[in-house]
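Pilot study result, target chain (359 residues):
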Amino acid sequence: MIYDWTPAAVLPNLYGNEGVEGDVIGIVPSEDERVVAFGKAHSNLAEFLSRFTDAFGVPLKPLVLIVRNDIIQNINDISAIASFRDLASMCAVPYGRAMASLYPNGGHRLSYANSFWLYPWMLGKDQQYLYSITPAMQGCHVVDQFHGQSSPDLTEKDLHDVDKPLFEALFPVWRRYYLGKRRVWKDSALFRSLNMAANAAQMPGGMDTTLYDLGRSASLWVSAFEILAHPRTAKSDLKNVYGLMESVAYLDRRMERKSYIAHFPSMKKKPWPRRPLSCWLYGELYKARNDFLHGNQVSARRLTRGLDTSLFWCAPGLYRMALTGFLGLKIDKSDPSWYSRQYQSTIERALLKVRKQPD
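Predicted structure:
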């Protein structure tokens, strides 16, 4: 069956020939046949998309978030669209940062969730005027006076390295949660966590970024982990997050080894149990969060202590491991398909590069 689709938002910080989509919603190129068809029926859309440039007037071809027409009427607020955006960003940023860590001379990777910024102006249902509603403003204007720009503090990124196995596991949950008839706690925790992670994965600041901005990002990451691991009937703490990390079906045996003494202050008796590398890294992130949020003395070493890479930088990859445990993702190690292995394998290798030697 052929469905009609409606453009719902524009992402001017992204371009590319691929995008990412499920069967009812997607982020696609502006040249996608569904976007082109809508533009032919509503000329204001084509005009609107043609008016995007970077800060220096170079024309852009932004990606467009589209929703199938028979579905969009069932989406009562922006939450479903925002959650899909959060989901998509977490299928790109962790892998992008891992690739940047492993191949620092391989070009500028998609490393920040700001790339998935939804432009605040969009055509309304009348397809005549542009509307904007944000916490700071409400506005209406005409297309022929519009001049759209990408973010001046972020170069446009090609959306082509999407963690497909992760997306294929997350999207059915999105569909069930937002289009189904019943919502369960675990799904709610997932999308609340993804929202926190998408904010944690943003650039901590612009040219004015300080150590405290990095610490704030680390704090948001800890919240994303704790929400994801929350048992609902009790407090979410280190034990719950460690449980997620220890449930991961790792591809590299070095990631499985319980060689690291992870932070565990609720256990007064020492030595604390040895756990996998991912637990140790999260314990360090947790301690850094406490120092920053509680006003303890901090220095630049707080996010790099005992590491070759900052906790701020490796946190998205660590979060991908938590999602792997949460979703119960497992990859057949005998499967020769590179597609099924490359994303998790790449992130594991990047995390192993952070610190290879046990305590």
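One observation from the pilot: The longest helix spans residues 211-229. A full batch analysis is planned for the follow-on phase.
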